[in-house]
Design goal:
heterodimer, A: 420 residues, 2 domains, 17 helices, B: 223 residues, Rossmann fold
Chain lengths: 420, 223
């Protein structure tokens, strides 16, 4: 093989001290492997936590908020600014308002035309008491279009008994949260009586049970059809209080929520604003991962720096003789820097492989099972971009760690060495 | 053969550390092609300093130096390296072979750096040089496994590989026993007879006695 002479020298020197080169390489291997392992695991954890927490939260939630702001008042129109005539009302009660979205069907139709919207699911929700024999439980009844709700929250995967579509076929069917069903001690086919705070009551037949893995949902929530709740509340058939939206890209929620707020005039909450703890948790875990990983890679860089410095100190005579024979500073730099880079590149590749194997290993370790975990194995993500980043940063570290000693070698004054 | 290969004009060199000291004082010198010159003198008289200066390794001096008709004073490091590679062959007191390489590779490296011939031709030339040094059998040995005398012969073969205009030697026998010293002496004489230009620093008067011209130095001047 006709390597350029600089690389021939570099390669021969590298192979002449295999042990030392390998130890320098081990630093890079472990640094990059741990980076890959940690970032894959942490991203897996982030995804799992986010999925779990967001499983019952829509990307965007549009609803009619109760207003307690009476800053704009008609009093000045009627009474002028004559304070003597004013009656000051402290702590006014909210006026009686209809909480529905007045142009709900138009909003839904409009949202459905947007290309970034995946699912639009209308909702009419009410507080209810569940009666089954002597047991009376407080809960939330959601009237939904079950096909859209199923797509919004992946209900089909969360069904414990029965099927979500049963709501469509059964007359006055109800889907109960598994916790709620257990407390009421009902199974498919049983009848439960629901009572509203206003006093109306109605009987529904249990056609299925579901579990989100969140006790706050599973213990209180039940689904019936939209018309079921409208009947229970004695409202007309376009009475809808909430619209929930699922996006194709969850990260677009904040922007679209702002658009909806302006366009439809109702309160629009994106998941980030309503659940700041998810983002904060992700940020904290990400920061920790990056800090630890970059520290490992930097330490690996110092390992290379140390070893190359030692090598160059022991090679002063060789550098002097090469310079006498016509190699200039640039050649010497090439020789020693290429040694660092070979260590870096081979170490990075081996590190990526080791990192992948460790991540894969962890992803096959069973996760301790409890009632509310849906995870069978430890959560690990495999994303190619982290592998590229790890390799890139690893090579950058070895480059910097290699340049400093190599520059020192390039500046060696041959006369000073040859004379001594 | 009266062509001049090296002209040095009023070379002076100062050491600033540990205290200011003028090691070379206004040295002017010319070397004709094919000459075998030895530089002798007591240690500390500046003979090694002069050699490093003439060999372009040391650029910290005043005066001017021309080799092979071209002025080398003031050239940058890159140009000087290329110049040394092509025109100057070095032999040092301590052999200074690269220990990781075989004998043959050590000889080939300067020629590969020059890059004018193919790898096969370089190898062929290197083998010829080994033949000339009568150590052909050592070609594939690691250079670290050789005796001092053998290593110095390899170093001479390496100095010759690019057919340099001038061979510079700094105490080439300084580290050898008498038998090997004799062998190296003979090689140098043979090289001189073949028409090579040799500039050697030595403290060995026998060696100097057999050269064409002796330059004796004292206190930074040519005596």
């Amino acid at each position: 093989m006709n390597l350029p002479v600089n690389l021939l020298i570099s390669g021969t020197q590298l192979l002449a001290r295999k042990r030392q080169s390998f130890i320098a390489m081990l630093g890079v291997i472990f640094g990059i492997a741990m980076f890959i392992f940690m970032i894959s695991f942490m991203k897996g954890v982030n995804n799992y936590i986010q999925d779990t927490m967001l499983s019952a939260i829509p990307d965007i939630h549009i609803y009619n908020d109760i207003r307690t702001d009476y800053a704009s008042s008609v009093t000045s129109t009627w009474l002028g600014n004559d304070t003597a005539k004013m009656i000051v009302v402290h702590h006014p009660r909210p006026e009686k308002v209809r909480l529905n979205l007045k142009n709900a069907s138009l909003i839904i139709a409009d949202l459905k035309t947007r290309s970034d919207v995946e699912v639009v699911s209308p909702l009419l929700s009410t507080q209810v008491f569940f009666n089954y024999g002597p047991v009376q439980l407080n809960g939330v009844l959601d009237g939904v279009n079950i096909l859209e709700e199923a797509r919004l929250f992946s209900l089909r995967e969360r069904m414990m008994t029965g099927r979500a579509e049963n709501l469509l076929t059964a007359d006055k069917g109800i889907l109960l949260g598994q916790g709620l069903a257990d407390k009421l001690n009902v199974v498919r086919g049983d009848l439960v009586t629901l009572a509203t705070p206003a006093g109306a009551s109605m009987r529904f037949r249990v056609v299925g049970t579901f579990s989100f893995g969140l006790s706050t949902v599973d213990n209180i929530k039940a689904y019936v059809s939209l018309s079921g709740v409208q009947q229970l509340l004695a409202k007309d058939h376009d009475y809808i209080t909430d619209i929930r939206v699922k996006l194709k890209d969850i990260n677009g929620a904040r922007d679209l929520a702002a658009v909806c707020r302006k366009k439809y005039g109702y309160k629009s909450e994106d998941w980030e604003s309503s659940n700041p703890s998810i983002k904060a948790g992700n940020l904290i875990r990400d920061t920790l991962t990056w800090v630890v990983s970059l520290t490992l890679l930097t330490v690996a860089g110092f390992g290379i720096y140390n070893i190359m410095n030692m090598v160059i100190s022991s090679k002063m005579k060789d550098i002097a003789i090469l310079k006498a024979q016509g190699f200039d500073g640039r050649d010497i730099l090439t020789i020693f820097l290429s040694q660092s880079l070979v260590i870096g590149i081979l170490g990075a590749l081996a590190g990526l492989l080791l990192g992948f194997l460790l991540s894969y290993g962890l992803s096959r370790v069973p996760f301790p099972q409890t009632e509310f975990t849906f995870m069978k194995f430890f959560p690990v993500v495999f994303e190619i971009k982290y592998y590229f980043f790890g390799a890139g940063f690893g090579m950058l570290t070895t480059f910097v760690a290699g340049v400093l000693p190599a520059r020192k070698a390039a500046r060696v004054d041959p006369v000073a060495i040859l004379r001594s | 053969m009266n062509e001049t290969i090296l002209v040095a004009t009023q070379l002076s060199k100062f050491f600033r550390q540990p205290e200011p000291f003028q090691v070379l004082k206004d040295i002017s010198l010319s070397v004709r092609k094919g000459e075998f010159i030895t530089i002798i003198g007591k240690s500390g008289c500046g003979k090694s300093s002069l050699l490093y200066l003439l060999s372009t390794l040391d650029t910290d001096y005043t005066g001017s130096l021309a080799i092979n008709g071209s002025k080398v004073t003031g050239l940058n490091e890159h140009a000087l390296s290329g110049f040394r590679n092509e025109h100057i062959g070095f032999v040092f007191q301590f052999h200074y072979l690269l220990p990781e390489f075989t004998v043959l590779q050590n000889i080939m490296i300067p020629a590969m750096k020059l890059g004018k011939l193919s790898r096969q031709q370089i190898e062929h030339n290197a083998m010829e040089r080994l033949e000339q040094m009568e150590i052909r059998g050592l070609a594939s040995k690691p250079s670290g496994k050789l005796s001092g005398g053998q290593q110095q012969r390899v170093a001479i073969a390496r100095a010759l590989i690019n057919n340099p205009g001038i061979i510079m030697a700094d105490e080439p026998t300084g580290n050898l026993d008498s038998t090997n010293t004799q062998i190296i002496f003979n090689i140098f004489h043979q090289l001189a007879q073949e028409g090579n230009t040799i500039l050697a620093v030595t403290h060995d008067n026998d060696f100097a006695a057999r050269s064409d011209r002796i330059i004796e130095m004292m206190d930074g001047r040519i005596k």
